[in-house]
Write a structure and sequence with these properties.
The protein has two domains: 264 residues, Acetylglutamate kinase-like (Carbamate kinase, 3-Layer(aba) Sandwich); 92 residues, Archaeosine Trna-guanine Transglycosylase, Chain: A, domain 4, CATH 2.30.130.10. It contains 13 helices and 13 strands. Helix 2 runs parallel beside helix 10 and helix 7 runs parallel beside helix 9. 41% of the residues are buried.
């Protein structure tokens, strides 16, 4: 690896580093991360920081409350967010900016572009963006759920060259190093497949954060497909960051794809959630580059879910085979109405006047999933 070609990086820090004892924020483990960020900036590398920890930072203010209570958890996030930002701000002698996001912000194309522009403007003016999920207002429908995947979405939005995900272990092992003494560290991964996911296992039980190694692999898969080199490193040791500065790999390096997805295709596939489904016959013949003119109401078997014009939808075969994610040019209500018409001539003439069912400007092929 070489850090000499890093113009912009994203660093993801988890709750266990922010509030390791669940007694508010601690700078104990953050000092080395802050020094790494300062040194990167001094070398001309722009940095975006994705920081979890608002709930963990605020939990000590609600000692008699159950964290499982959603309203209380949102209150913890609200109180802890200010403490977390203040802690980071004290560690730097340059300006920081807070950006709180929900998945609703990221999956809406117009708001996504606005987020990109804000990040670029902050970086241009030498300000460090500090990004977190807006736990205070998010709902199950709007949340990303973990900041590992959020960091990958942010890295793609920021056009980063590298994503560095801090963990409590040195990287990805072939088995859980907390349970197996003979676990071997994988220093290099050039293909993320089911075998890699099996090594990751599930989330860590009893931990401070919401993620685990599996969500870090999910994040790596999103990032490398956008051409972003991804590293999982031990965030609890200063050595990890010193090695990164020296151009060495302290953990697991997931190699970026040589031919990354285009930005709009990556957003459609990995960031935008499908709000509904359009189901076609099993013998529907979709080319690799999906021809939007192919999909007409006569091929539609069913329409599932409720969606509006401009929403992302999933097009799949009746047997469950995923074909594409795309932006719909029709609402579910209108598409249902047209698809149910017995008069094919009416449907054909209607579509000729109003255009194709899905937009060919925002489409992501899923046949290789």
């Amino acid at each position: 690896m070489s850090r000499s070609n890093w113009n912009r990086i994203v660093v993801k820090v988890g709750s266990a580093l922010i509030a390791p004892n669940k007694q508010g924020c601690s700078s104990h483990y953050l000092l080395s991360i802050a020094q790494f960020i300062v040194k990167c900036r001094a070398m001309g590398t722009q940095v975006v920081l994705v920081s979890s920890g608002s709930v963990a930072a605020g939990s000590h203010l609600f000692p008699k409350q159950e964290k499982s209570d959603i309203a209380v958890k949102k209150a913890m996030a609200s109180a802890g967010q200010t403490e977390m930002i203040a802690t980071w701000d004290r560690l730097f002698d340059f300006s920081c900016a807070q950006i709180l996001l929900t998945h609703g912000d990221l999956r809406d194309r117009e708001r996504y572009v606005s987020i990109r522009e804000t990040i670029f403007s902050l970086l241009e003016h030498g300000i460090l963006p500090i990004i977190n999920e807006n736990d205070t207002v998010t709902t199950d429908k709007l949340k990303v759920g973990d900041n590992d995947n959020l960091s990958a979405m942010v890295a793609a939005a920021a056009d980063a060259d590298a994503l560095i995900i801090c963990s409590d272990v040195d990287g990805l092992y072939d088995k859980n190093p907390h349970e197996h003494d003979d676990a071997q560290l994988l220093s290099w991964v050039d293909n993320i497949d089911e075998n890699i996911y099996q090594m990751a296992g599930g989330a860590v039980k009893g931990g401070v954060g919401t993620g685990g190694m599996r969500t870090k692999i999910e994040a790596a898969e999103k990032a490398v497909s956008h051409g972003i080199d991804t590293f999982i490193v031990n965030g609890f040791t200063e050595l990890s960051f010193n090695m990164l500065l020296e151009g060495k790999n302290p953990g697991t390096h997931f190699q970026a794809h040589e031919q990354p997805m285009q930005e709009n295709v990556h957003w459609m596939r990995h960031t935008s959630n499908a709000q509904g489904e359009v189901i076609v016959e099993n013998d529907f013949d979709a080319e690799l580059e999906f021809d939007t003119e192919q999909l007409t109401s006569s091929e539609i078997v069913a329409v599932k879910g409720e969606f509006s014009v401009g929403d992302t939808i999933l097009v799949r075969k009746n047997d469950g085979t995923k074909l594409v994610k795309a932006r719909s040019n029709y609402s579910s209500c209108l598409l249902n109405f047209i698809a149910k018409q017995d008069n094919e001539k009416f449907a054909s003439e209607f579509e000729q006047k109003t255009g194709p069912i899905i937009s060919n400007q925002h489409i992501a092929n899923l046949e290789d999933e």
